[in-house]
Amino acid sequence: MKRLLFAATLFLAFPWAMDALGHGFYVSFASRLMIYAIAATSLNLVLGYGGMVSFGHAAFVGTGAYVASILLVEELTSAWLGWPLAIAAAALAAWVIGALSLRTRGVYFIMITLAFAQMAYYLVNSMKAYGGDEGLTLPRRAQLGLGLDTANETVFYYVVLALLALVLYLLHRLSRARFGRVIGAIRDNETRAEAVGIPVFRYKLACFVIAGAAAGLAGALLASHGRYVNPGVLHWTQSGTLMVMVILGGVGRLWGGVIGAFVLLGLEHLIADYPVAWIAALLPNYQQHSALGVGIVLLAIVLFAPQGIAGLLARNRNAAP
Amino acid sequence: MLLLSAVAKRFGGVLATDGVSLEVAAGEVHALIGPNGAGKTTLVNLISGGLAVDQGDILFEGRKVTHLSQHARVLSGLARSYQITSIFRSFSVLENLALAVQARSGTSFSFWRPVERERFLFEEASSIAAEVGLEEKEESLAATLAHGEQRALEVGLALATAPRLVLLDEPMAGMGPEESQRMVRLIERIRARVSVLLVEHDMDAVFRLADRISVLVNGRILATGKPEEIRANAEVRRAYLGDEVAA
Amino acid sequence: MSWILIVEQLLNGLQFGLMLFLLAAGLTLVFGIMDMINLAHGSLYMLGAFLAAWFVQLTGSFIAGVLLAIPATAALGMLLELTLLRKLYARDHLSQVLATFALILILNEAVRLVWGSDASLPLPMALSGPVELLPGLFYPAYRLLIIGVGLAVAVFLYLLILKTRIGMLVRAGASNREMALAMGVNIPGLFTVVFGIGAALCAVAGALLAPLFAVQVGMGENILILAFVVVVIGGIGSIRGALVGSLVVGIVDTIGRAFLPIAFGAFLPPQFASAAGPAIASVAIYLLMAIVLFFRPQGLFPARG
Question: What is the per-residue pLDDT across A113-163, written as a single tens digit (0 to 9) for each?
C-alpha cells in the first residue's frame, strides 16, 4: 500500500517537477510511456493472466489507432466519440480474430494470430485514402471539452494517467473476481477446467476481447499523442515488442505491463540520447544499435529471470528473513 | 443412470472401442476392469466428453448426451477424475475445489466482486476437502502435495461438481496399501449419494467395492455381472484374471 | 491475357515456392522433432545471403561464393544450437518465442555492425540472359537455375529422409519423440545435425534469391512469416507437407499478385480495384491458412497422430 501511494505521488507530481526543472519535453515522453503501458497491460491480460500467446496483439492497438485517426481526419474530433468507437472497433476485431483463432491450440494459435495481424497490416497498408504506407498525419488531438485542452501536454498527461490508473484498477478487480479465477484455472490446466464444468472457449474469447478493447484504447491515445499513425503500428514486430514489455515487467503480475513499458522505452531512450564514453570507445555507433542491447537483455531475462522484473521484486520481498 | 449403446471409436487404423454396450444403474458402484491397452481410458474419455464417439449413443439419466460438450455433461451431473493427476497446480487445495463449486453455481462473467467474499464457495470446498481427507492441507499449494494427497484432490475435484455419477479412472494409481485403503473408504462413503463407474487394476478394491463388474478386452465387453460370476468366468480368467492374484 | 504470361507467372510461383520449401523444410523439422518455435530461422536465411555476398566479393566467383556460404551458415547454425537453442527445448513455447525473437534483434544488429544494413550480390553474367523454353516463351536463365536447384534439393531431401538411416531417425523423432528417446536415439546429436541441415537449406535459399531481392537486414522476417504459414498449412513435422504447402503458397501468392488486380479491375470501378487488388493479394495466403486451419487444424499432412 505504501508503495502504491509512493508511486501515485510520483506520477501525480511528475509534470510539475519536470516543468520546474525546465524539462517540459519529458511530460510528453512520459505520456507515451504510459500509453504503451496500457497496451502492454492489455497484452498481459491475455498472455500473462490468460496464458494465450497471442502474437497479433498489435492488430488491436492498430485498429484503435486507425479508427480514432480516421474520425479525426474526417473532422469528428470529440474524444467522447472517437475513443469509445476505437475501443469498440478493436473489441470487434478481437471477437472475430479470437473466435477463429481460439479453436486452435499451442503453436497453431501463435501462428494464426500472427497471420491475422499481418492481414490487418497489409489491409491498412493498402488504404490509400488514409495514407497507405506513408501513414496519416492528424490535424489535432481528440478533444475532450470540459475545459480540458488536450493539446496541452500536461493536460494530456493527466488524462492518460487517469486512464492508465483506471485500466490497472479494472484489471486488479477482474483478477480477483470470478472471471479472474476461471481464466487462471484455464491457464493452469485447460483440460481440467473443461472437466469441472467450465466452458473454456467462451471465457478465453471474453478475455481476448476485453484485452483487445483495452489495446484499442491505447491505440486511440497513441494516435492523438503523436498526431500521426502508420501501418507500422500493426506490424508483427510491434506485437513482439509488446511481448518483450510484458515478459520484462512480469507475466501475469498487475504492474508487469507498466514496468515493462517504462523500462524498455526508457532504456531505448537513454541509450539513444545519452552516449556513454567507454561503450562508445569499444563500439562506435553503439547508440544506433540499441536493439542489440534490447535483444541481449531480453534473452538474459528469458533464460535467467523468466518471472521478469516484477517477479524479481516479489521474490526479494518474500525471501527477506 | 448411464447407458452406453454400441459405442465405437476408431483412431486411424485402430478400433479402440468396438461396439461397447454398458449400463450403470443408479446407486451402484460398477467396476470396469481389463488388461492394459484394452481401451478403458478411451471409454472414460468418450463417456465424459473428452473424445467424440464415431458410432453409438450415450444416455445419461435418460437423456442423450452423445454430442453434448464436456462441460455441459459435467453441469448435468456427470463428472470424472483422471488417471494421470490433472489438478490446478498453482492453486491451493481449497481454491481448486472452490473452482469446481464456482463452475456449477452461476456464471463466472463476474468482473468486480472478489471471489473471497463468496463464503458459500469456500464452505462447500472445505467440506469436500474434509470428505477426501485433505482438511489439514486446505491452504497448501496443489503442486506441493504428496502423490496420494494429489490423487485425493483429483477425486475431490470430481466430487466438487456435485455429480450424480462419477467416473473414477484408476483413482488408486501409484498408491501404497495404506493410501489405497483410504481411497476405498472414501468410495464407500460417497456411494450413498453418487453412482460410480470405477476403472481400476487393484483387484482387492474392485472386489470389495463393486456391485457389478464389466470386463473390457480389446475394446469389447467380454462379460458383465456380479463379482462372484466374473471371478468364476473361465473366459475372463483366461483373458485377464489369470494374471492377477485372486482375492 | 496471353498463355505466355500465365506460364511465366506459374514458373515464378514454382520458383518462389521451391525456395520457400528450403526454409519451410528446416523449420518444420525443428518444430516437429524438437518441438521448438524458432523465429530466428529467417535470420539464418539472412546470414546465408550476407555470407554469400561477402564470399562472392572475396573470391570473385559466384559459384564459389554460394558454395562457401552454405557450410559457413550451417556451422554458425550448429554453433547457435549447441550454445543457446539447446536450453530452450525444455521450455514453454512463449519462452522460445521470446528468446528467438531476441535472437532476431541480436543477429540483425550483429549483421549491421559487420556488413552494414545492405549488401549486394549481382546476377552472375553467364545466367543473366533469357532462355527460350518454347517458341515465344522466354524465361530468365537464372530463375531456371533456381528451379533446378530447388527440385534437386527436394529430391535430395526425399532420398535423405526416406532412404537413409539419419532420415529414419528424423522421421521417428518427428512422429514420436519420447519413443525415439526411449529407444536410445542420440537425440542431442540428432538435433544438432537437423539444425545444421536446416541452416544449410536457408543458406541455399538466401544465396540464390540474393540477386533477385535486396540483401538487407530484416529480410529474414518477411519470409519467415511465409515459411510459418507453409509449415502450418502443410503440417508440423512433415517434409511432404512443407513441399506441398510451399508450392501452394508460392503459386497462390505469385498468381494472386499478378492477376488479382487485373481480375478486380475487370468488374470493379478503378479506384476500388487499385486498392482492393493488391490488398487481397497480400492477404490471400493468410486467408488460405485460416481456411486450412479451420477444416484441418493439424495441417494437411501432420507427421503425428
Answer: 888 888 888 888 888 778 888 888 888 888 888 888 888 888 899 999 999
Please answer yes or no on whether A107 and C105 come within 8 Å at the CB atom. Answer: no
Residues in chain A within 8 Å Cβ distance of B89? 188-189
ipTM of the complex: 0.89
- pTM score: 0.86
* CB proximity B139 to A under 8 Å: no
Distance from CA of C87 to the nearest CA of A (A): 8
Cα–Cα dist C22/C48, whole Å: 12
Render pLDDT for C42-77 as a digit per residue (tens, 0 to 9).
999 999 999 999 998 888 888 888 899 999 999 999
Q: Is A25's Cβ below 8 Å from some Cβ in C? A: no
**pLDDT at site C287:** 83
Residue C231 vs residues A95, A260, C175, C257, C300: alpha-carbon distances, Å? 26, 32, 15, 21, 10
- Cell match 487488388: residue? C277
Please say whether the beta carbons of B41 and B83 come within 8 A. Answer: yes
From the list A298, A293, A296, A188, the residue with the least C-alpha distance to A242 is A298
CA distance C194 to A171: 44
HEC per residue, chain A: CHHHHHHHHHHHHHHHHHHHHCCCHHHHHHHHHHHHHHHHHHHHHHHHHCCCCCCCCHHHHHHHHHHHHHHHHCCCCEHHHHHHHHHHHHHHHHHHHHHHHCCCCHHHHHHHHHHHHHHHHHHHHCCHHHCHHHCEECCCCCECCCCCCCCCHHHHHHHHHHHHHHHHHHHHHHHHEHHHHHHHHHHHCHHHHHHCCCCHHHHHHHHHHHHHHHHHHHHHHHHHHHCEECHHHHCHHHHHHHHHHHHHHCCCCCCHHHHHHHHHHHHHHHHHHCCCHHHHHHCCCHHHHHHHHHHHHHHHHHHHCCCHHHHHHHHHHHHCC
Place of cell 463428472: B79
Mutation site, A116, A234, A292, interface C, largest C CB count within 10 A = A292
Tell me the HSE value of A312 on the side-chain side, using a 13 A CA sphere: 12
- What confidence tens digit (pLDDT) does each residue in B173-221 have? 888 888 888 899 999 999 888 999 999 988 888 989 999 999 988 888 8
DSSP, collapsed to helix, strand or coil, labels residue B146 as coil
* CB contact B71 to A (< 8 Å): yes
Q: By percentage, how much of chain B surpasses pLDDT 90?
A: 45
